[in-house]
Write a structure and sequence with these properties.
Rossmann fold; seven-stranded mixed sheet; 7 strands; globular; alpha/beta
Length: 202
């Protein structure tokens, strides 16, 4: 897939405020500081489509971007940012959960995982919640350029091994880098294929 057009549509504080559409959506979420905004900018080829920041927790709303006039990329607030006040953190989580559960044209939730780190409990717990709620998702391991391929694969394998304890079938996963664009074509090809299948469901 070649991304020819990408434009910001709107920010929403509640899933019911999101754009009404039958276009498939791919929502991106991850632990704060996982490199979500950088990944989105790399994927779309737009350096400033999603706002990056040195301070985690910048994304506080549900942000919709229309891609190629036929699917939405959705930037969701990150989870696990401990410096955010407790009440606001709960509000973000509830907003995200309601969006994930109620957005009928959500094709996949893309969960970003920092490939530099050993499996984090908060990521595992979030994925288990998705399984309990029957939410379709894929894993996107980020920042693979920051270390050797051997180290990246070791962390990915460790993560998948933990998932195997609870899951009969593992989700699709991609190893990526916002710096080198590693994994970009794989992710876009997956979205393109899913879009075709999604249209048959409508």
């Amino acid at each position: 897939m070649i991304i020819k057009t990408s434009s910001f549509v709107k920010s929403s504080a509640h899933w019911q405020q999101c754009p009404k559409s039958t276009f498939p959506e791919y929502a991106f979420i991850g632990r704060s500081n996982v490199g979500k905004s950088s990944f989105i900018n790399m994927l779309t080829g737009r350096k400033t489509l999603a706002k990056t920041s040195s301070k985690p927790g910048k994304t506080q709303l549900i942000n919709h971007y229309l891609i190629n006039e036929n699917w939405y990329l959705v930037d969701l607030p990150g989870y696990g940012y401990t410096r955010t006040s407790k009440s606001l953190r709960i509000q973000w989580n509830q907003m995200t959960i309601e969006y994930i559960q109620n957005r009928q044209n959500l094709a996949y939730l893309c969960v970003l995982i920092d490939a530099r780190l050993a499996p984090q409990k908060i990521d595992i717990a979030f994925i288990e919640t998705l399984g309990e709620r029957n939410i379709p998702f894929v894993l996107i391991f980020t920042k693979s350029d920051k270390q050797s391929l051997l180290k990246t694969m070791k962390n990915v394998d460790s993560f998948l091994t933990i998932l195997k304890e609870q899951w009969e079938e593992l989700p699709f996963y991609f190893i990526t880098s916002a710096v080198t664009a590693k994994g970009k074509e794989d992710v876009l090809s997956f979205i393109e294929k899913t879009n075709k299948e999604f249209k048959h469901i409508l």
